């Protein structure tokens, strides 16, 4: 019994690792994180590099299983031995409000 639980833990860790890699490195996996399938990606991206860390911001159109579409913002951070992925889901109204907020900040710089 102890042997099964020991290998069960290893199997769980391997499956979890595969899922994390799939989610972070494939378009379909990133779509799952954003709540649907990525329909299109903006042609532009923002990339910043600071020492060994690089950050990238992408904007996607994501279609949920029920057919509704929303804006998905992907913020990824890459380092030598690590990667971080943050996702933000916005409805059309929230995305328009976000654009207004950015324009207000831009006008004050």
- State the total count of DSSP E strands: 5
Rounded to the nearest angstrom, the distance between the terminal CA atoms is 65 Å
Number of domains: 1
Query: Percent helix among the residues?
Result: 40-55%
Strand content: 35-45%
For the largest beta-sheet, the strand count, sense and barrel status come to: 5 strands, antiparallel
Rough shape? Answer: extended
Explain the overall architecture.
This protein has helices spanning 2-25, 27-34, 92-107, and strands spanning 37-41, 46-50, 53-63, 69-79, 82-90. The longest helix has 24 residues, at 2-25. The termini are far apart. The chain has 109 residues and is of the alpha+beta class. Strands 1, 2, 3, 4 and 5 form a 5-stranded antiparallel sheet that branches. The chain has one domain (2-107). β2 (46-50) and β3 form a beta hairpin.
Descriptive tags:
109 residues; alpha+beta; 5-stranded antiparallel β-sheet; extended
What would you say about this model in short?
The protein has one domain (2-107). It is built from 3 helices and 5 strands; from the N terminus they run ααβββββα.
Write the layout of secondary structure elements.
Layout: H1 2-25, H2 27-34, E1 37-41, E2 46-50, E3 53-63, E4 69-79, E5 82-90, H3 92-107
Antiparallel strand pairs: 1-3, 2-3, 3-4, 4-5
Helix pairs in contact: 1-2
Transmembrane segments: 7-25
Keywords: Membrane, Transmembrane, Transmembrane helix
């Amino acid at each position: 019994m102890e042997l099964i639980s020991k290998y069960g833990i290893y199997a769980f860790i391997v499956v979890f690792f595969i899922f994390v890699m799939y989610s972070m490195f494939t378009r379909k996996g990133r779509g799952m994180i954003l709540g649907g399938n990525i329909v299109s990606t903006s042609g532009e991206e923002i990339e910043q590099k600071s020492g060994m860390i690089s950050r990238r911001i992408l904007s996607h159109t994501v279609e949920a299983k029920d057919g509704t579409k929303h804006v998905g913002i992907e913020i990824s951070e890459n380092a030598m031995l690590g990667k971080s992925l943050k996702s933000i889901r916005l409805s059309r109204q929230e995305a328009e409000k976000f654009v207004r907020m950015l324009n207000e900040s831009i006008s004050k710089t």
